[in-house]
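Severity: low
Component: inverse-folding endpoint
Summary: output formatting inconsistent between runs
Steps to reproduce: submit the following structure tokens with default settings.
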């Protein structure tokens, strides 16, 4: 669809603007510091050097944008990742100018740059998710909505309704509860005439979930009923109707799956029956919390990418003619050893296979389990044998 594409394109342009603006300001501050020091040589930190130093952050940003290509609220984080190298270098140069040359205005410039980059991150999410149009509702982009009186945020994703940030606004991935369309029985906008409380179960690695509770003040609220969850989320009338419309469009034609056995729950969540003793011994629980992410695997992934990095750097040093790069990547007199290039090529292919086998594939499987336990935080109770023949376990949901 044209509108979702245009919204994403606008968001990407703002992220690129954030990265470029931060580096331009940092380069100008470096040039100013060079002039104040009355150096006749080339400035120590040029724009090209800054770009090279920011490549790693931009690579992470691009990977994050792809991973969250449908989760628009996360784009503000990647916008700040893109701008971080420039903001950091600007602060570094500002401190040098202030300390060595007595120009505190440089700090104001760097601080102003940080504020602008922060605001651009907010603007990225705003232009993608607002206003809420019919085309946006019919797309697969995540739409965030503000709740009434809670720090939690209500998000309508492509395949589920999510209530996040129950723990903190700064930790949106913490204590996430979800109701997928395949588990949604009903959702209604109700009017509460007295204060109530809502309890939700969070899976934290133990055999049983942990209960969290929040107050729901009188007024409009969304009553969400799923096969494993029941939520009461305070919202405004306008937000409630927008969420109902979004859920109606995105869940159209989806059937509710009610048949979930304990064995299937354990298979989908990644928690086995033999894990109970390990959890109690403190050896396993962290790897199944809904807020856990295996960030340490990035070190392994970076190692597997080293041959490809060397090969890319070698080729770029030849294409750009940069003497500095050629020296760094052992290119002598503008010529390279074909055996060295062939070795890097073979190693890159081998290491990329290992990266997929031992990092990417396990990570995707792990995230499938995380998404599952957000919606089904604990195994279902054993079913009693009634002597009747079970049905299909499916039915159409109602709104």
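Observed output (run 2 of 3):
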């Amino acid at each position: 669809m044209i509108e979702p594409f245009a919204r994403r394109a606008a968001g990407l342009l703002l992220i690129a603007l954030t990265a470029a603006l931060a580096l331009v300001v940092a380069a100008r501050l470096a040039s100013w510091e060079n002039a104040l020091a009355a150096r006749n040589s080339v400035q120590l930190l040029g724009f090209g050097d800054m770009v090279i130093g920011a490549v790693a952050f931009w690579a992470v940003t691009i990977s994050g944008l792809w991973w969250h290509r449908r989760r628009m609220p996360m784009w503000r984080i990647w916008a700040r990742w893109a701008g971080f190298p420039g903001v950091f270098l600007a602060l570094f140069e500002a401190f040098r100018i202030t300390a060595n040359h007595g120009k505190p205005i440089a700090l104001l410039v760097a601080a102003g740059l940080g504020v602008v980059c922060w605001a651009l991150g907010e603007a990225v999410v705003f232009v993608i998710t607002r206003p809420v149009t019919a085309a946006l509702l019919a797309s697969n982009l995540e739409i965030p909505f503000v709740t009434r009186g809670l720090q939690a945020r209500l998000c309508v994703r492509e395949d589920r309704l999510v209530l996040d940030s129950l723990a903190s606004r700064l930790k949106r991935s913490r204590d996430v509860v979800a109701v997928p369309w395949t588990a949604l029985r009903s959702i209604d906008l109700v009017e509460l005439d007295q204060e109530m409380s809502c309890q939700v179960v969070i899976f934290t690695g133990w055999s049983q979930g942990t209960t969290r509770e929040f107050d729901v003040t009188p007024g409009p609220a969304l009553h969400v009923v799923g096969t494993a969850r029941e939520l009461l989320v305070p919202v405004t009338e306008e937000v409630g109707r927008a969420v109902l419309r979004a859920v109606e469009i995105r869940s159209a034609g989806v059937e509710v799956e009610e048949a979930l056995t304990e064995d299937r729950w354990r298979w989908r969540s990644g928690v086995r029956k033999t894990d109970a003793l390990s959890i109690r011994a403190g050896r396993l629980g962290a790897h199944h919390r809904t807020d856990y992410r295996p960030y340490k695997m990035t070190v392994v992934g970076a190692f597997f990418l080293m041959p490809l990095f060397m090969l890319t750097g070698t080729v770029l040093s030849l294409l750009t003619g940069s003497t500095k790069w050629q020296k760094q990547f052992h290119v002598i007199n503008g010529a390279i050893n074909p055996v060295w290039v062939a070795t890097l090529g073979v190693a890159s292919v081998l290491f990329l296979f290992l990266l997929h086998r031992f990092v990417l594939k396990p990570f995707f499987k792990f995230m499938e389990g995380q998404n599952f336990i957000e919606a089904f935080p604990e195994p279902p109770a054993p079913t009693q044998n009634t002597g009747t023949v079970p049905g299909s376990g499916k039915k159409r949901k109602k709104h």
